[in-house]
Amino acid sequence: MGTAQGGRGRLNSDLQDVLGQLTRVTEDAQKLCSGLSDQQFNWRQAGGRWSISECLEHLNLADASDATSLNAVIDDAARRGIRSAGPFRYGKLSTWFVGTVEPPAKHKAKAVQSLVPPPNLAVSDVLPKFLEIHERLARVIEQANGIDLVKVKVPAPVGPFKLPLGQKFRLIAGHDRRHLYQAWEVRRDPAFPGS
Length: 195
What we know:
Elements: H1 13-33, H2 38-41, H3 52-80, H4 92-99, H5 123-143, E1 153-155, E2 162-164, H6 165-188
Antiparallel strand pairs: 1-2
Helix pairs in contact: 1-5, 1-6, 3-5, 3-6, 4-6
């Protein structure tokens, strides 16, 4: 994960926490994929559940989109001078919403079509892309240092409400954990090839 501070001094505690979460997610993805063949990477459990490759590629699609859109939001907030060093306090609704994505999933949600991953991908393609996108996300998080993480709002992925920027970062990390948990469930399945 990146370590630059965007020229704005030490990262505030919210951003340090999220950056730490993403670092742990990245390490978990590397551990998950360690030693996998493409056959194992693309193996599916019964019931049409996603393979490990589909879980990670879904995150690649979602996280790449978020990195691009959040970069623009942060640039706009900086131009408009929407700044604060914190501390930041988030409301109950956004805190609850972020908690809904944490694993294990209590409610299944269908992915929007643009985030549905294709099947049969090579681990040598998907994992490096995952790592690169997480480096981009780290740079975006670092760019947000000094931005008011409560006043700057972004659309929630579902519903008509908006999330504070700081909570959006937490949502990304939680969503990543959710699908890595799902992918680990595939790898731990007794029927998993080579297990």
